[in-house]
Amino acid sequence: MEKLKIRKIEQLSENERGSTYELAGSRAEGYLLAYRRKGSVSGNHWHEGKVGGKDPERLLLLQGKIALYAKDLESGEEYEQQVTAPSEILIYPMLLHTLTALSDCSFLEFNSLDEHKADTVYPEPNPVKG
């Protein structure tokens, strides 16, 4: 699916202290750190790509495992995959997406709350997939 990319984060090193991973830059105005409990559902919306932090939306799954559902609103193509941390998820505009926590998890969104509010569309009615 062209509007969704999932990349495992490259591990640079690991030793007795832990591990180090590398990330590329971001155009976001801020960051959101989210903790989700197992079984919770997030998202069920799409972005139009009006702000830098949502074109694409960049989410870094730091810990845990999620089920990701996505639907391209232009082609109708659907996508479902389980994603395990650490992974980077890039969600492009006009892609309905829903995340279900398969375990307690945490993720970092590379956008501010203002960017989220300015570029998030929820379906009417708002059925949750997951």
Q: Indicate the proportion of strand residues.
A: over 45%
The CATH architecture can be given as: Sandwich
| Count of all domains | 1
Task: Please state how the strands of the largest beta sheet are arranged side by side.
Answer: 1-9-6-11-4
CATH evolutionary superfamily:
Jelly Rolls
Q: Briefly note the structural class of the backbone.
A: mainly beta
Secondary structure: number of strands: 12
How far is it from the N-terminal to the C-terminal residue, by CA?
19 Å
Radius of gyration: 15 Å
* Average pLDDT score: 86
List the uncertain runs. none
Per CATH, the class reads Mainly Beta
What percentage of residues falls in helices of 4 or more residues? under 10%
Major β-sheet, in short?
5 strands, antiparallel
Q: Note the run of SSEs as H and E.
A: EEEEEEEEEEEHE
CATH topology: Jelly Rolls
The helix tally amounts to 1
Overall form: globular
Overall description:
This protein has one helix and twelve strands; from the N terminus they run E-E-E-E-E-E-E-E-E-E-E-H-E. The relative contact order is 0.33. The mean pLDDT is about 85. The strands form three sheets. It has a five-stranded antiparallel beta sheet with strand order 1-9-6-11-4, with no helix packed on it. It has a five-stranded antiparallel beta sheet with strand order 8-7-10-5-12. The protein has about 130 residues and is mainly β. The protein has a single domain, classed as Jelly Rolls (Sandwich).
